[in-house]
Amino acid sequence: MKAMVYRGPYKIRVEEKAPPRIEHPNDAIVRVTLAAICGSDLHLYHGLMPDTRVGHTFGHEFIGVVEEVGSSVQNLQRGDRVMVPFNIYCGTCFFCARGLYSNCHNVNPNATAVGGIYGYSHTCGGYDGGQAEFVRVPFADVGPSLIPEWMEDEDALLCTDALPTGYFGAQLGNIVEGDTVAVLGAGPVGLFAAKSAWFMGAGRVIVIDHLDYRLEKARSFAHAETINFAEHDDVVVEMKKTTGYLGADVVIDAVGAEADGNLLQHVSSAKLKLQGGSPIALNWAIDSVRKGGTVSVVGAYGPLFSAVKFGDAMNKGLTLTMNQCPVKRQWPRLFEHIRNGHLKPSDIVTHRIPLEHIAEGYHIFSAKLDHVIKPVVVPSAS
After folding, report:
1. pTM of the complete model
2. Does domain 163-322 bear CATH number 3.10.560.10?
């Protein structure tokens, strides 16, 4: 089969790879019909995440058609059209029993932290991802779900990570009716977080980024106010000004490990890899939220130390909430929002790229060319 293969930082290619096979009676093999490139895939592409091995196939956002099922699988059969959450989880361990699917204890040798994630290095279990023609799906009775007949493919694709993660970011903010919510980052997750904040009663939503075309999307898609941090000497001071010098009630960090804004911190983390990620966005969140407020973190960071202003967070009495999104827990609410016309996830899709040209897709997304917001990958498997 054809698959995207990692060959080192900034080096990916499409190669012929042995197709996945059933390794356990609970496995399924899914023929991928659509995949996507996620902003967190860029952390792998740039070489920021540890233990990203040569030969690994990325891609934790994908949908497809069931090609084969293991002997124990009861809920799926060949030909089913399925959406697959990016979490790989067993459904029965201590954490899964509490709905913490992203923290499953049985799917990752490194499960003291995160559970399993498709296509996200051996730090997250070493599972190959969906930027390929076929993918092995473990615990097939637990993770995948049939795509509702009324749901379009691209909407289903965005329900596998970007939309639930943005919604989860707003949920973690514990938004109270009338709250001022600031979202750092106008990428797909940030856009969905901003949109979701309104569903939870926000009285004001402000999105911060430095790319004008993404801020325009935040205004048109999420109906948010915007601040371009590149136009201000100190974005925290600007945030204080625009919130009556109190700060936002809730700040959502939808940026993560490669935040721009401070050259020294960006170089030490993203380039020299001396930290688990640039702490810029998280520190801005801590500084710009009001005392007693909440900082929600859904941007991806590496496991190494980061120079976060923890003392300031403590002294301000902040609540810090964070996790990888337990995707399937969000689906019932999101499906209703989509079905009722309150949300059209595919409105943020800007590029549709054949799998054969995925290296160009990564370059476009990494360099933010051609007003890219969300690239979708189209395999050619028949």
Report:
1. 0.93
2. no
